[in-house]
Design a protein that fits this description.
The protein is an alpha+beta fold. The chain has one domain. A five-stranded mixed beta sheet has the order 1-2-3-4-5, with helices on both faces. Helix 1 packs across helix 2.
Length: about 130
């Protein structure tokens, strides 16, 4: 239940941001506004968190995650006209790389934010 409550709180923050700013802005602006809302909600988070990317057990670089909330939820923010399936693959990849059990993909460029949100849960048996 904790994870469901946490993702509902994050989604609530996103809805507040969307109500205030509306669709059509840059992702970076939504990220900054989300940071304010998460802070006001008392949620611990990291912005632009770097995680290592490995290939055959060797680190080949770093990737930055938009937001990580409570050390458990990856939040990938978008502001795009079309929801590309690649975005879902990105979130799942970030979750696997960082060993995060839950991910949210939030597209702020949507008239109704609820239709721009997808939640992902990794099967804990598949995580290394």
């Amino acid at each position: 239940m904790f994870m469901e409550d946490l993702t509902e709180q994050i989604i609530g923050c996103a809805i507040k941001v969307h109500r205030e700013l509306g669709p059509g802005l840059l992702e970076s602006l939504y990220e900054a506004a989300m940071a304010i809302e998460l802070d006001l909600a008392g949620l611990q988070f990291e912005r632009q968190k770097s995680i290592p990317v490995h290939y055959k057990s060797r680190e080949i670089g770093l990737h930055r995650l938009d937001l990580v909330v409570a050390g458990k939820v990856v939040v990938e923010l978008k502001s795009v006209d079309r929801f590309d399936p690649l975005f879902e693959a990105q979130v799942l990849g970030y979750m696997k790389m960082g060993h995060y059990p839950v991910g949210l993909l939030i597209n702020f460029n949507s008239p109704l934010l609820k239709s721009g949100i997808k939640r992902f849960v990794l099967d804990q048996h598949l995580s290394p």
